[in-house]
Amino acid sequence: NLVIEDPKSGNVIIEEVEKIEGEARVNNRKGKLIFFYEWEIALKWTGHANGKEKEVKGKVEIPNLSEEHDDMKDVDVDVSLTTKGPEADILKEMLRVGVGAARIRECLTDYLSALKNEYSSGVILPKKGTENGAVISDKNVNTANNTKSNLASAEKKLQSVNITSSAGVKIEVDDLRMEESMKCTGQELFNALTQKDMIQIFTGGPAKMADTAESGVTFEYLGGGISGKFLEVSPFTKIVQEWRLKSWPAGHHSTVEMTLKQTKEDTKLILVQKGVPVKEMESTRQGWHRYYFEAMKRSFGFGAMLF
Predict the structure, then answer these.
(1) Are 237 and 259 within 8 A, CB to CB?
(2) Strand partners, 23
């Protein structure tokens, strides 16, 4: 769920690692660890061009990630489209040569660092008198199963980063992505998330905010348990907030982006939350379900059929 945003083009979410195949080896030469690796990677992505509602889908393929490349800029990043149209072409270029390409290569650099750390752990350098160049390891790094296990661990490391809060506390954070279907119109769901009187109904208590949300409006819900500020309010389609739980380290805020997509049957709420403390990830996810999604369905009938 890597999110790539370009103010000039739009935003893309890397949703799935479709394929990662290859091998990695580590050898010891005169007491020095030497790494050899060759990977073929395929990623699935979705995105939206600025000002466009049409969802674009495609793939990113890295056909040869290996130790042959001294500079990550030399690694080929191929972008293909499942969706056609001008919106798709804009996002394709962003991923191929723009901000997206730079972000992907940055992740590949981090990925290799995590991969090397993973493979080198448990490796025992040969003692004097043992076979030259041999490495004894408690892992068989050439087996497919262990390779997948190590890669999964490395991928997880890539998704979380360490930041320092305004209070000077170091925090490990990650991104949260959720999707919920509501049996209502986009306008009804938007109003429930931005109108003070409706927020007070589904949260079951007073909300400290203006009567109607707009950019710059601060808020407090659930007795101060949730607080933040509206950063962007696009009628019926998008809401962006600075958002925090009271239990989080002092001064630390996440960024929440809620995208509303109305269909014939319902309205999809796609939530992307950046900067969630890893230790609070599960409680935050449960909180969205309990205090937002389920509460709105229960209070306004958004869980019932639209017609």
Answers:
(1) yes
(2) 38
222 and 264 in contact (C-beta within 8 Å)? no
4, 97 contact by CB (below 8 A): no
**pLDDT tens profile 12-41:** 888 888 888 887 776 666 666 677 778 889
Per DSSP, 70 falls in state S
- Indicate the SS3 state at residue 85: coil
The candidate with the shortest Cα–Cα distance to 12, out of 63, 78, 76, 57, is 57
Where is 148: in which H helix or E strand? helix 144-159
Mean pLDDT of the chain: 81
CA angle 271, 2, 62 (to 5 degrees): 145
Choice between 256 and 99, residue whose per-residue pLDDT is larger: 256
Helix or strand (DSSP H, E) at 305: none
- Can you read off the two tokens belonging to residue 100? 């997206």
Q: Which residues contact 171 (CB under 8 A, 6 or more apart)?
A: 162, 163, 164, 165, 249, 252, 277
Return the SS3 of 162. Answer: strand
